[in-house]
Specification:
Elements: H1 3-34, H2 54-64, H3 67-98, H4 104-115, H5 123-133, H6 139-143, H7 147-165, H8 168-176, H9 181-192, H10 194-210, H11 213-218, H12 227-232, H13 242-277
């Protein structure tokens, strides 16, 4: 191995390590604040070690907001939205990739154009529609409208993946065996789309979990608040207990980290398997 290659490899690994530490620092700093007193936030030099106040801060979080109910609400809404996005996006993306029908290109281009429209522009029309349906302060108002941008991105993502992954010979073999269109999607296309679906499921779940603006607009029943709305109530008008806020944020972030690790393992494993087969 030449010295030049060794130096380049060392520099690359060094930059990756530095980048990884920098990306982890916000989570570390949040954890430090969550385990210390609020007065420690304003110390100089700042306190960079974990404290012993985390359990006390967590008790204050549970005393100030209905964290458990909001947590369950967020899990239910995020899971339902993820399942619906995966089903409709995978089905539409599969048919856009492997079927040609009149207007398919036009429809797909309209789908791409919809991705360029900021979601804030549809906030008022969406609220009017939801209000006319009588869905204000219901979970349907959180799940169904959020499917539109997520499903549009998901259709584009699945279509691009399916075009290169699902070969026409497999579909022809399925047709010879008597599979109709939906069975081709479910038994042939869906299993081959698992790596793309792992990423899309992760993306959809985290997006719904972190959504704040739309739940704030359509929810006025405290029993149906999501975590983001409940955590915002930890901020008072005249002062903010940052340790309290960070403790609640840390509790809301830990499930996302666990889910990310589970999905990313499946995602990377399937990608590696596909690369070996190729």
């Amino acid at each position: 191995m030449s010295p030049t290659i060794t130096i380049k490899s060392f520099a690359l690994h060094f930059l990756l390590i530095v980048g990884g530490l920098l990306s982890l620092f916000p989570f570390y700093w949040m954890s430090v604040i969550a385990t210390n007193k609020s007065s420690d936030v304003f110390r100089f030099p700042p306190k960079l070690v974990f404290g012993s106040n985390f359990l006390l801060n967590v008790q204050h979080v549970f005393a100030n907001i209905n964290f458990g109910t909001s947590f369950l609400n967020t899990i239910g809404v995020s899971t339902c939205a993820m399942v619906l996005v995966l089903f409709f996006s995978s089905m539409a993306g599969f048919f856009f990739a492997k079927y040609r029908f009149p207007g398919s290109i036009v429809l797909f281009n309209i789908l791409l154009i919809s991705l360029m429209i900021p979601s804030q522009l549809s906030l008022i029309p969406s609220f009017i529609i939801i209000s006319n349906f009588g869905w204000i302060s219901t979970f349907k108002a959180l799940i169904l409208p959020g499917l539109v941008p997520a499903t549009a991105f998901g259709v584009f993502w699945i279509r691009q993946y399916a075009k290169d992954t699902i070969h026409d010979e497999l579909l022809d073999a399925g047709r010879i065996d008597g599979c109709h269109d939906f069975r081709l999607y479910w038994h042939v296309g869906f299993p081959l789309l698992r790596p793309a679906l792992a990423f899309l499921g992760l993306f959809s779940f985290i997006s719904t979990w972190n959504d704040y603006l739309w739940p704030l607009v359509v929810m006025n029943n405290p029993k149906k608040y999501t975590l983001q709305i409940s955590l915002s109530q930890l901020n008072s008008i005249y002062s903010t207990d940052y340790s309290l806020v960070m403790a609640g944020t840390l509790l809301a972030t830990i499930p996302l980290i666990v889910i990310f690790l589970v999905f990313s393992k499946q995602f990377i494993a399937n990608i590696a398997a596909g690369a070996v087969k190729a």
